[in-house]
Write a structure and sequence with these properties.
By secondary structure, the protein is an alpha+beta fold. It has one domain. 11% of the residues lie in helices and 24% in strands. The strands form 5 sheets. A 4-stranded mixed beta sheet has the order 2-5-1-8, with no helix packed on it.
Length: 221
């Protein structure tokens, strides 16, 4: 399954120090370079919610470059042999595994962190997919049947551009422009309570999501 290497440079208001370094936050990989499930990773660099009680796994300073090894949005359940049935049976409770948290030295409550995305590229498995999961996503009322397109991401660049190709779409070649997915700054407990109070009268689904913010552990895992 696709595994993204996310490289980000942390830029603060002050000039970057001359001793800036590169920090890598790894994940544990199994056969073929595919990350093992988030909840089973002994490195404990993975979580799936925002909460200040989740301990930091690395530190960086202004000017440092940080490489985040990541999982895909479904925690890597799909691979080159996955079928429509695999997609239909996907566990959506494991969505959005996050790498981190990263502590930024010198940052204070209320600061704005400027982050420059340098590159997003495939992991060592060089695999990705596009899926349509029944009942999931913004177009779930249009695409009601499970579907999957398997992408190969390891072809050599052509004129500096990486491309994705698929056996499911012969003759199609797409420029490989990865994106970070979910990225953000954890709220403090005070900010969480303020947000919950502000959304107190919102629909039940949002109330359920806000309740997850109060729990530092992923209970469904």
């Amino acid at each position: 399954m696709k595994s993204v290497l996310l490289t980000a440079a942390l830029v603060a208001a002050a000039t970057a120090p001359s001793f800036a370094k590169t920090v890598r936050i790894p994940v544990t990989r199994g056969a073929g370079g595919v990350p093992i499930p988030c909840a089973e990773d002994p490195l404990r660099t993975c979580h799936n919610r925002w909460h200040p009680d989740i301990p930091e796994v690395a530190q960086a300073s202004a000017g440092d470059t940080v490489i985040f090894e990541t999982r895909d949005a479904f925690d890597n359940p799909f691979n080159r042999s996955s079928t429509r049935a695999t997609v239909a049976g996907a566990n959506l409770n494991l969505i959005h595994p996050l790498t981190g948290p990263l502590h930024v030295r010198g940052a204070r409550r209320g600061d704005v962190l400027a982050v420059t995305m340098i590159d997003v590229g495939p992991g060592p498995d060089n695999f990705g997919c596009t899926v349509a999961v029944p009942g999931f996503g913004f177009l779930r009322d249009v695409f009601t049947d499970p579907a999957i397109v398997h992408w190969e991401l390891g072809a050599p660049p052509i004129n500096g551009t990486r491309y994705a190709t698929s056996r499911d779409l012969p003759g199609v070649r797409l420029p490989l422009h990865g994106f970070a997915g979910t990225i953000g700054v954890e709220l403090g407990l005070d900010e969480i309570e303020q947000r919950i109070a502000a959304e107190a009268n919102q629909p039940p689904r949002l109330e359920q999501r806000l309740d997850l913010l109060r729990r530092p552990a992923a209970e469904e895992r």
